Structure formats: C-alpha cells, structure tokens
Amino acid sequence: MELFKREKYLSKIRGFYDADDMIKVITGVRRCGKSCLMQTIMDELSANGVPADHLIYLNLDSRSYRHVQTAEVLDQLIASYASLPGRKYLFIDEIQNVSQFERVINSSREDGDFSIFITGSNSYLLSGELVTKLTGRYIAFELYPLSFDEYEEMKQFYHKAIDPDRLQELSQYILEGGFPRAIGFAELADKRTYVQGIIQEIFEKDIRRRVKIRDRQSFETVRNFIINNFGATTSISSLHDSLRKNGLEISRQTIARYIQILEDAKILYCCDRFDMKSKRALSGEKKYYLADLSFYFALNTDNRINYGPALENIVFIYARSMGYAVSIGRIGALECDFILRGGDMQYAYVQVALTILSSRKTEDREYRPLEMIRDNYPKYVATSDAFLQQRNGIQHINIIDFMKKQRRF
After folding, report:
1. What is the model's pLDDT at position 269?
2. Sign of torsion, CA 208 213 219 223?
C-alpha cells in the first residue's frame, strides 16, 4: 500500500539524509507513525538511486528481531552489513528495546559508513547515556499524531469522505483523534478500541519496562485525572488535595513521579506558565495537553465536546508540529493562552476560543490580554468563526482554515 507522506516532518529531516556523522533520532508516542515515516524516507532514498541492499531496516518490535535485546547481539547484526561498499542507510525502530544500545550506535556511526536513523516511543532515548555519549552527534525530531491539517490530507489521500461542514469535520477529528491507523477504521467504536489498545501497549512496553509502579490502581487514577482535566491549570498541591478528597492517599512526590512517567511516555506534554512582566517562568501551576485527544475519549463514555480545552489542545499540537516552543503567558491577572517561539527566536501570541461573536464581553475577554502586550510581535485570536475582524492590530483568524493551509504564526 502506498504510504501517506508526512511532508511536514520529511522537510525537517531531508537535509540530514546523508549526514553520516549525525544520528537522526525520531521520537513520539507509540503508533504516531514513526515506522511509516522511516519507510517513506527509505522510499525517497530508493527513488534517488540508493540500492535496496544499502537500505537496512530493523524493527526491534517485530518477531524477527525479538532476540535482539543486548548490545552485543545488535552489534553483530549491524556488523553483518558493514562489508557493503559505500554509504549504507541504517534504520532501527524501537531501539530502546536493546540495553546499552548507545555504544553500538556510536561505534557504527564512527566506523561503519552508516547514515543512522533510530526511533523510540519514550523520553528515555533523549536522556542518560545517549546524551552523555552522543552529545553533538545526534539531532532529534519529534513526531506527533496527525494534526488537523494532516488528518484531512490523509483522509483525502486514502479516499475517505471529508465533511463539507468545516466545524463538523473538526468535531469528527476531535472525537476520532489523529492516530494514523485509526483512519482506516470505519466505525468510531473501532477507533476507540484501537486507542484503548495503544494505552495498554504504552503501559506494558514504555512504562512497565522502564519503571516500577507498585500500585497500578493509584497510577491509573492519577493518569485518568490528568487526562480528564487536560488544558486546565494544575498544580501538584491542588491535584493532591483533590485526590485525597476522593479517598486516595498518595504523596505529592508520587503524584509528581506519575506525571513525569506520563510525560516520558509522551502521553502528556507540559506547558509552563511565564510571567511576562518579570520575564520568569512560574513554578507550581502548569497546564498539560494530550499527545492526542483520542486518549480522553477512549477513557470516557461521554462524547460531548468541551471545545475550549479541545481547541487549545489542537493549537498546542499544531504549533509543536510546526517547530514552535510553547508556553502560557501571565499578564497581571490575565492570561495569554500561548506564547510561541520559533526557531528564528521570533515570538507570536495566540488566544484560542470557539467564537468571539456571541457577545462584546466574549470578544473583550479574548482581546484584552493581547492588548496588554506592548511589543510588536504578531498577535492572534484564533476561533472557528467564519466572519473575521481586526482590532488594534490583532489578527482574528479562522483556525480551521489556518491549519489547513499549514500557515505559520
């Protein structure tokens, strides 16, 4: 089957295809499409004339390679390809399955004439030994489940129906989520079952193998609480108090550890708050966004959409997929939903709401924080409104159209 090309990510990696002095590290939550991204890279290299035997793909999650669990076995396997003349392209999927893989990858990079690509489903790849041994010798690319623009592109690519009602199509995306394989299922119930399987797989493969969780029930309670309150301002202290009121005796340290585990497994992304007056990060309260909204609906039976946090989550993932660093801005008693910083160190400010057309009070609530920011970086109010307006130099954008055109803030 022809693979859907995720050009948003390929364009970031393409310049490093032949960089045999740099390990290309692709991370992201399980089932977000890392293996298919590798396959499309291989397809491009093949189309550019690289011989098939110089494209080496090792999926360490597959039965064929389940015996590859130690550095010695992996080293022997890679060495069997080293005698091929010229540059080889080595793709290793889910490399965290191999203990002490770092020294093997480093020696292959130095001695084997390999351009190396590796993937992993958790933050372990970018910590510990990899950072210590390969500092300056790797470049990381984070892959996310499909953003809304990719969701529509992929549906079109595979000849799936797209609702002409733009808001209805966005609602469908919110309920279904952006895991690429889920698009192939016709029924929403099947999509939910698939995502529930992903959650179970993450726990068994990316959490249980890495860390010891003595009380699985308390871990799942914290997990469900954070997922159910995505986009809400949260602190360890307030979460601790809420859980205690619901009868769960758990320490603040354990809660913090559980949240970090969820972040390491790339289920959650933390968004820090930043005081724009003092120019300092604020400790304590944070917001957490989901790698994919389907995590929320897979754990709940209610299909009602709370568009406020859902749209924030969509914009957060879209901005991250476009390469922005994202934080939340506090301006006195007010809050700017997102401060975005691009790779060029330019900033943008974004307020997100379903609509600002319902009342003047609603409009003022979204514009006021942006009007208090005195610099000249771009400012946006992002909504689903068809009728757009401008106010004090602040751009009112339809976020659906904005994402479909893959525009940058």
Report:
1. 96
2. negative
Amino acid at site 298: A
Question: From CA 269, how far away is CA 291, in angstroms rounded?
Answer: 7
Mean pLDDT of the chain, nearest integer: 91
Question: What is the distance between the alpha carbons of residues 189 and 2, in angstroms, rounded to a whole number?
Answer: 26
With a cut of 70, say whether residue 129 has pLDDT above it. Answer: no
Distance in angstroms between the alpha carbons of the first and the last residue of the chain: 35
**Strand partners for 271:** 287
Give the residue from 341, 218, 188 showing the smallest Cα distance to 272: 341
CA dist list (Å): 356 to 177, 203, 400:
25, 40, 15
Structure tokens at 249: 């005796």
Question: Please, are residues 124 and 266 in contact by the beta-carbon 8 Å criterion?
Answer: no
pLDDT tens-digit map of 328-352? 998 888 999 999 999 888 999 999 9
Q: Do the beta carbons of residue 169 and residue 163 sit within 8 Å?
A: yes
Using one digit for the tens of pLDDT, what is the confidence trace for 49-103?
999 999 999 998 888 888 888 989 999 999 999 889 999 999 999 888 888 888 8
Cβ–Cβ under 8 Å, residues 382 and 366: no
DSSP code at position 5: P
The tokens for 364 are: 């003022």
Residue 247 pLDDT > 90: no
Alpha-carbon gap, residue 45 to 106, rounded angstroms = 23
**CA gap 145, 215 in Å, rounded:** 29
If one counts every other C-beta atom within 10 angstroms of the C-beta of residue 138, the result is 22
How many C-alpha atoms does 270 have within 13 Å on its Cβ side? 20
3-state secondary structure (DSSP) of residue 171: helix
Which among 328, 377, 399 is positioned nearest to 174, based on CA atoms? 399
Distances (CA, A) of 404 to 83, 84, 204, 407: 47, 44, 36, 8
Between CA 271 and CA 312 the distance in angstroms is: 11
